[in-house]
Amino acid sequence: MKTYFLTLARYGEWATRKLYAQVDALPEADYRRDAGLFFKSVHGTLNHLLVAERLIWFRRFAEGVSPQLALNAEVETDRTRLRERLFEAASAWAPLIEAWPAERFADHLHYTSTKGVAQSLPFAATLGHVFNHGTHHRGQITAAITAMGQACPELDLVWMLQEESRR
Predict the structure, then answer these.
(1) Which residues of the chain have pLDDT under 70?
(2) Around Cβ 103, how many Cβ atoms within 10 Å?
(3) Which of 18, 44, 127, 162: CA 20 to 30 A from 11?
(4) Which of 17, 157, 8, 3 is closest to 93 using CA atoms?
């Protein structure tokens, strides 16, 4: 399990960096406009990724705390700083996963939902959710950018694996 989740952590970081090659090229108006995404804009969706993956889920897994943040809270208005924080967030998962003993993956994660409800879910499946969640929203962003007439990178996991095998 640990090897698998380390792969997903590498993938999350790789895909975030690849996506940003196109996000960085977006004009400010396109970056901020309502693109029909659940969190409205590219910015809103990236901000949601920071809230959900770093400020909520990472803290649940790393610190055992459950911050009570709204999933649509705009925690970073600055485009450049949001980019930096997302890169930092993506790179934080692998060291955390590496530090866990193998038996941790067979346990449960106990936390409180953003609505204040106590939860106890299978640890590995819930960690899988975190990485799946990022993939889902990066996919939404690539669809929005493509609809704006811009090119987007191929973000499939196998592309990262192929890239790694060529090195």
Answers:
(1) none
(2) 9
(3) 44
(4) 8
Can you tell me the distance from the alpha carbon of 117 to that of 46, in angstroms, rounded to the nearest whole number?
Answer: 26
CB atoms within 10 A of CB 19: 22
pLDDT at position 27 is 96
Beta-bridge partner residues of 119: 111
Distance CA 120, CA 116 (A): 13
Question: Would you say 85 and 51 are in contact if contact means Cβ atoms under 8 Å apart?
Answer: no
Which residues are within 8 A (CB) of 67 and not within 5 positions of it... i.e. 6 or more apart? Answer: 55, 56, 59
Which residue is it, tokens 């380390």? 6
Question: C-alpha angle with apex 159: 156 to 161, nearest 5 degrees?
Answer: 115
The encoded tokens of residue 82 equal 């949001």
* Distance in angstroms (rounded) separating the CA atoms of residues 140 and 43: 12
Residue 68 to residue 80: CA distance in whole angstroms: 25
* pLDDT for res 44: 98
